Amino acid sequence: MITKKEPLPKKFRNLRNIIVIFCLITFAISLPQIALKVNDYNGPAEMHSFELFLVGGIAFLGGGIIETVIWLANPLSLIAIIVFFKSDEICKVFSISALILSLIYIYWKKILAAENGRMADIEELCFGYWLWITSILILNIGIFYYFLLYKKHKKHAA
Predict the structure, then answer these.
(1) What is the pLDDT of residues 8-26, one digit of tens each?
(2) DSSP string, 17-52
(3) How far apart are CA 63 and CA 46, in angstroms?
(4) pTM above 0.85, yes or no
């Protein structure tokens, strides 16, 4: 952990800001995109990322416990960002957890389609999903790169 007593060099503050900005921009771009295509009882349907983002946190109310668990990748990413701004390396745990949770979705074959428990077959993971994964991946790579550079900086400064 970087202590409050030693000021963080400006280049590290800038790098941290750039990492988070790229992550959040990628996430924002993913929201209006189609995240997945499903085959529901009334035919093919598309689900946009913002729909999944908005209802994912309350999916457990309709029986979607696992959907809610996957959705937790979003708050875990947010926690990772907040802790990253405190320059605490524990943010690595939060960002890796978010990445693992988001990647689990690749193996799903069905998704909750309605509050009554009706399931729909997932036909395709689309651009919105992959952008969401990319935003979390950017955060992970950025955090690990940042702390690697910081350790090298600290070693050379000593």
Answers:
(1) 778 888 999 999 999 999 9
(2) HHHHHHHHHHHHHHTTSEEEEEEETTEEEEEEHHHH
(3) 21
(4) yes
